[in-house]
User: Fold these one by one.
Assistant:
Number 1:
Amino acid sequence: MILLPQAALAGGVLGALGLGLLRRPPALAVRALTFLAPLAALLLLPMTPAGLLPPLIAVDIKCLGWQLVIYAAALPLALRSSADDVEAALFLGVVLGMGLLTAAGNLPMLFLALEFMSLPAYLLVARAGTGEGGRRLEAAVKYFFAGALAGGLFLLGMALYYSQTHLLGPSPRPVGLLAQGGVTLMAAAALFKIGAAPLHWWLPDVYEAAVPEVTGFLSTAMKAAAVLFLMRVVQLVPSANFAPLLPWLGAASSLFAAVMALRQESLQRLLAYSSMAHAGLLVLGVGAWARMGQSPVAAAAILFYLGAYAFMSNGTFGFLAATGLRTRAQLKGYARRQPGLALAFAALLFCLGGVPPTGGFVAKLLVLWQAVAAELPGPAVLAALSALISLGYYLGLVRDLYFEEPVMESPAPGGACARILVLVCAFGALALGAAPLLLKDLAGGFWR
Amino acid sequence: MSPAALVALLMNLVAVLALAGFFAGAGALFGPRSRHEGDADMPYETGLPPLSPGHERMTALYWRHAVLFVVFDVDLAFLLPFVLVRPRLDAAALAAITGFTVLIVFMLAYFWRKGALECR
């Protein structure tokens, strides 16, 4: 059985819906199911060998690696989810869709999985959380229209590709102009889902309006799935016309997001732009990977980046969820009230900024290294410049935390579970920096 | 797609547009000129003056049923290709299609339980 993790998640979805049939769904059972299904998927992953179930399913080594990151990145939201059975089913549905996307063997399955992971995500953005939901609903509608546009682009691209090649999978031979156009459209759909400039306009609004935990999930697991989606599209043809554009797009969106984040007052919007800057670096990594003939080392670098970013982003959004802070003004002097949480947040910010010797630094170094190895000095320099600019707001947040007088009351921090999550994420992000060479060797051997 | 096919497509497009344009515009070209005066422009409603403006919002309380109908209709349409790819109903095929049907019935029960089938 090569689809054991996905089967566990499907069982979780059906279980959550089944609990919804009860008059009063037991809160403990819903929470346990929400957490145990992704955990079971994670634990079943080592028992699932690579293999094929043609034509729809193809589990390769990349599929397994990405599943690892996606399920692990979904755990924080699973831990913090509410006792709502509908929300549980939606969340598990998104994760199941991602699991299917990693294992998609041909284009129709890729499209099905894309929709499977996207549709519940729109509803999750609108539904998760308490209090007034007007802004969340608006964000969900924006997200839906962006996603629908991406789905339409993908279908059109798939039709063009099929009309010339009569293939639903990768083409072994170089293809004509029409199929190249189709692949470009499919790549545009993937860039939409990643949120790379100039297809990013929905991202800040959605990431700001959603509940912080959900944003953490979207910015890590969803982004990982979208990056793999882009890589699968690049793999369709031997030399895609749009591939040389990817590094520049990535560097440009990284630079744009870093500059935009500088002037944000809302913490969640700032972190949304920061997430976009990181996504730009990932797109640059995909460009380098494509240029070097889809080298496994570059893929490993991208996967490491995603893994490290899963810790960092889940940690920072978890901090927002645990403290209830919304604006930079509320953050001022917060270290005096909650020294432990503030220290973890500062560590996470250093990781996000790529300050050595943290996991964020290693991740950035690996991806930029691959870009330089692929002879892409221009985009690499631009990306490094954007990392430098991003220090302006990451270190600015640290200054707000430690060296400013408190100007206003901040809300009371949340429960112990949320705090422990922030600490665990901060520790993980730091620890990934402590063992870079070991991990790199591991990853290299794993991929060869 | 060959250039000849593209040309054929373009010719088809031009023909369709010309035909539709002719039908839409023929009345204005050849028809009798109407005198716009008095109540002549009023919509005809069995000889009575209209009760309300024509562009009115209508309630569509049945929208949820419409959506559910489409969803289950598409689900059941999957039975057709199943019959085509599995002409012989052996044990594995029976198990697969039973699982599929049970899933659909489960979802129907779920919608029923959640009150999505209520008529309001």
Number 2:
Amino acid sequence: MLAKLITRLKMIRARTANVLTMNKRNLNYIYPSNLRPDFPCADNKLLTKKMLEDCDVTVPNTLLSYSSFYELSTLADDLACHNDFVIKPASGSGGGGILVFVNKEAEHWITPGGKRFTLADIKKHITDIIFGVYSFGLSDDAIIEQRITQHPEITRLSPYGLADVRLIVYQHQPIMCMARIPTLASDGKANLHQGAIGLGIDIKSGVSQHAILIDSDISHHPDTNEALINQQIPHWDRVIEMSSIAARKAPLKYLGIDISISDSGPVLLEINVRPGLQIQNANQKGMRDILEVTRLKGEQQ
Amino acid sequence: MKKIKFQDRYDVRHYAFVVLIISLLASAWGIMAYKLYVLDYPLAGLIPATSYQVDVNIDTTGHGDDISIQTYLPRSDSRQHISAEGNSSGRFNISIENDELNRIAHWNTENSQGLQNIRYSYSVEAKHIRYAIPSDMAIPHSYPEDIQPYLAETAGIQVNDPDIEEALQKLFPDGPLTILNAVTTIHRHLQDNFANKNFSGFTDAITALKLGEASCNGKSRLFAAFARKLGIPARLVGGLIMKSGNKRTSHQWVEIYIAGHWVPFDTINDHFADIPANFLTLYYGDLSLFKRTSNVNFNYSFNMIKRLVPQRDALDSLDQSGFNIFNLYSVFEQVGISQNLLKIILMIPLGALVVVIFRNVIGLETFGTFLPALIAAAARETGLLWGLIGFVLIILISSSVRKVLDWMQLLHSPKMAIMLSTVVIVMMSVTVLSVHFNMFELAHVTLFPIAVLAITAERFSIIELEQGSLKAFKITFTTLIVISACYIVMDSLFLQSMILAFPEMLLVIIALNLWLGKWIGMRVTEFFRFRKLIFAKG
């Protein structure tokens, strides 16, 4: 009885040590690996794209970008030939400030949810972005990008918004990954805290293993009842290849890389210097052992 | 063989970190030790003293006549210190008269009609005193002239009644041996053989003796009668047992003249030659606490609040020793910064440490890193409850104003400037309204940090928009918890006295923060977040 209890306590202790927590992540991985001057190349999506322009990494096409108020006078002409695009703050986080348009009818651009925006609405949104509403009060750039059409396999899993694959990469090694699938509750955003599904994925095979929704384990999509487990993510080898090319190019050693699977293959959306910890719950395991093995290997070389 | 290797910058940093913590702690403890051992700081004086605020409330209803009311007010002496006296008596004029033992307040008014309220308040700090009676001291044969009256028979203390003599015969068959023997025997007899009764009326010594039971005034008179009959001077004392709350009951005990001192005895609560710190002396003599003209409906009560305050003696002696914060304080005083403000400023780093512990060790999200500490500091004047209510009011009203501004589609900076003005207006309105409704504590919200509140209201509404109302209220709730924790720590009188006497404690706070800055343990909330990874079976 007592022996059993002690074994269990030891196991709890070992597992606790294996969970990467906020304090450990910041002190042991982010601060030693990522130097402050290198943060902008991840925090600013325009700089990320610029950094990766010569490598074999696919990024969304930038159609237009605005960094000051007076540039907006030409907005009507700029948007005249675009019906299908995304507006993003260059330094936004958590999916805040992103607007997606799929079509244009007369004077209105239409979102996937069917909301209609006039030119004035769009102009207001872009000024908000420029004045830093979505980036903690610092002035920002607004990017207008080509919209990504999802791979049909992914659309089947994620019909309510753009899903992405989040990989934690440490010292150029992919450590852990998950897919983030928007739901009706998350309002089309791939943000776990707002109710998107976190789908743990085996890093070797690209097959999904486990799924969580907020705080509970699930096996099927809450809105469509589509099975989530044992699904193969298409183009997996290319996802891994792209993430390690991007990781080698970036000056950061501990980062989160977000990749979406379009109908023409994986597209790298953004790089994150402070990737979240929920990925461990999605995979049902802590990642500290893998991180430590990687670190020791790095030290030996 | 072990060698110290400076492999990379991380190691150097680690040694620098350890050296910095050690030197901070060493200098803080060093300065403290210097003050304690070389400058002889009175450490015991740092522990706060108990103080009571006493309000005497008197309600009168007159019928058009002249009214006069009289009661006794306490005097400061070596045991009790009376301060912060205040009178609020409406149409009544107050006059205070001093006789050789007592202080008497008279309130007079002419043609009183209807309900009138008199309120007299004061603060009391009193000490517990225990007297040692020499065991071999005989009962003296004679006393100075001014003590003689305390041996005489009075209306309620029938010294020469045969019943008293007979009772003393039984108590002391061989006569009392010493003063100690006399007062011990009388005290034990009254305490153990006479039941305590809650009579509110007047009981004289003989009645108490015959009934074998009495309230405080009956027992005190009987004690005095026994003592005087044995040739030991005795007098009655009227006062209050101080305790938080509202009450009408006053108390009486007896003092016996022994070796030049008046020594207190209470045979209701068994205090032998001993007077507790919560006994307030109001008057000496066999008197009644209130006197009034009969043409009035009259009611009174005592309302008491217990508080902790810095010890007065310690403040005085700290002021006199050379190298201390009170001299530093005089520097601040020259530029018009009060000691109270200095104390708040010195407590803010401690509040910030509490916030750090809540965020990094417990893992609660709060609005702003130091907002809780600043609000807690500002809530000193409002009290915790009203401070929290004021904070929530300001945040909710300002963030709903922000929603309107958002709908109007304004640019960010002018919008924030409007938010700031909104916070100021909300504060002013809360103050005006709370004064109007007699909620004076809430009126002090004006002292809250305005800019921090404006930013918090902005953060509240952004979180509400982006992550939902539930999340915004959750963070508000955890912020309230952390504000409360900061308030409790920053309001601690002991810590305040400590930091005023030893401002070098700030170095210890920095050292603690350095250590917390390298603390990689799991936050309490993370045990819950990752519970499935940690506690799952198998």
